[in-house]
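sorry for the late reply, my laptop died twice this morning and i had to redo everyting from scratch. anyway the thing you sent over, i finally got around to it. pasting the sequence first so we're on the same page, its 337 residues, then the predicted structure underneath. double check i copied it right bc i was rushing
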Amino acid sequence: MPLQIIRNDITKMEVDAIVNAAKSTLLGGGGVDGSIHRAAGPQLLEECRKLGGCETGSAKITHAGQLPCKYVIHAVGPRWVDGSHGEREKLISCYRVSLELAKQYHCETVAFPLISSGAYGYPKAQALRVAVDAISEFLMENEMMVYLAIFDRKSYQIGEKLFSDIAAYIDDHYVDAHTDFSRERMRQACMQEECLPDAARAATSAVFQESGQIYSSLHEAVSQIDESFSEMLLRKIDELGLTDAQCYKKANIDRKLFSKIRKDRLYKPSKPTALAFAIALELPLAEAKEMLMKAGFALSHSNKFDIIVEYFIAAGNYNIFEINEALFAFDQSLLGG
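ok and here's the structure:
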């Protein structure tokens, strides 16, 4: 997926470029800055000495020394005062300038730390929101794989109210994963008792009648196969007047993956990919469930991932990056391909 939030040590990431949360002198410091300089070795400091420092809100690029990446982009974030001294604008500028430098140097993969959220005191939830907004805006117009590398759980926070609201929604809707699903029990019992073919045909007929469909044979039922996931996706894109690029970017999906889906009407996406497209198309819950079903999945209240996604759809919030922030905070898989 084009934007992915991960837990990782940024100095060990094998990407084209990593971004350093640097001081204005560019001569190293504590936190991420110090870690990057230590891992890169003295070559990095030698290059930085030649740059003559950097203004807050801007960035400069060097080679990476002994790091496994090609480049280090040194971004100077703002110190937090009270939020009324241009902190947000300067932090947004850090991300934009860094991404433009990465593009200029033909980088396809870039990893960011959460700039200014350490010693510079920028509130972590707000720093995260700025990072996600700035990066996602860039990705709507550019092709690049961007990682937001979070070193540990303490370094990561979503808004307290959002976290509390989601936690409450989970508490209200979560059911034990071992809930007694009678249909599944009946199916298993039938298999164990080696039901006769006649009984199996009767059971099949009952299921079809229950769903509102009556077929004279299994062959007839199979011949009535419904619209596929790919067909529904492409139909919805056309109905909404979206371009392919608008859709897969809103879904946080790579262009190559979307191309596979477009070319193969029987393509079976993963559950996070199917839901990502439902979010991108801003489908109401009933239609989102229908699209998910066509991919062979369902939303379940025995699954926290499903409940969290349902929470956002029910609330009419289709910002996939905000949904992914919440999923990450609750240790769930992220939406996208």
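Strands lie at 3-7, 17-21, 59-63, 71-75, 109-112, 145-150.
thats about all i looked at so far, will dig more tmrw
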